[in-house]
Amino acid sequence: MKIRDQFELPRETGERREALKRSVEKWINHPSNHRDEEEIFHSLRSREDIICDRPSPVSSIEELLDSPHCYRIAFKYEKEIDDLLNL
Fold first, then answer.
1. How many CB atoms lie within 10 A of CB 75?
2. How far is it, in rounded angstroms, from Cα 80 to Cα 37?
3. CB neighbours of 32 closer than 8 A, spacing ≥ 6?
4. Number of domains the chain contains
5. Per-residue confidence of the chain (87 residues) as pLDDT tens digits?
6. Taking a C-beta distance cutoff of 8 angstroms, is the pair 81, 23 a contact?
7. Is residue 27 within 8 Å of residue 33, measured between CB atoms?
8. Range of the domain at 22
9. What Rg, from alpha-carbon coordinates, does the chain have?
């Protein structure tokens, strides 16, 4: 199921969160994924965060997957995730 379709799953039942978490985790761990953890974490920082030298809001993949930032990554890298996982 494509990332866009996963965002349409019911939030109340946790289906949306679990589907997006699975897809993002598969994408991160996929051998053809060329983005490393630091690049993914850095992408969560705003321009203001960078200017003020604030750290990334997460520091591990587990923390990312268990946080609302997982949604941001799924949205930001939607096409890349869909293409790499053939969704």
1. 13
2. 15
3. 84
4. 1
5. 999 999 999 999 999 999 999 999 999 999 999 999 999 999 999 999 999 999 999 999 999 999 999 999 999 999 999 999 997
6. yes
7. yes
8. 3-84
9. 13
Tokens representing 44 are 């969560």
The residue behind tokens 């997006």 is: 20
Tokens of 52: 């003020």
Q: What tokens were used for 16? A: 């949306």
Alpha helices in 1-87 (DSSP H): 3-6, 15-29, 37-42, 47-51, 61-65, 69-76, 78-84
Token readout for 86 is 């053939």
What three-state secondary structure class fits 30? coil
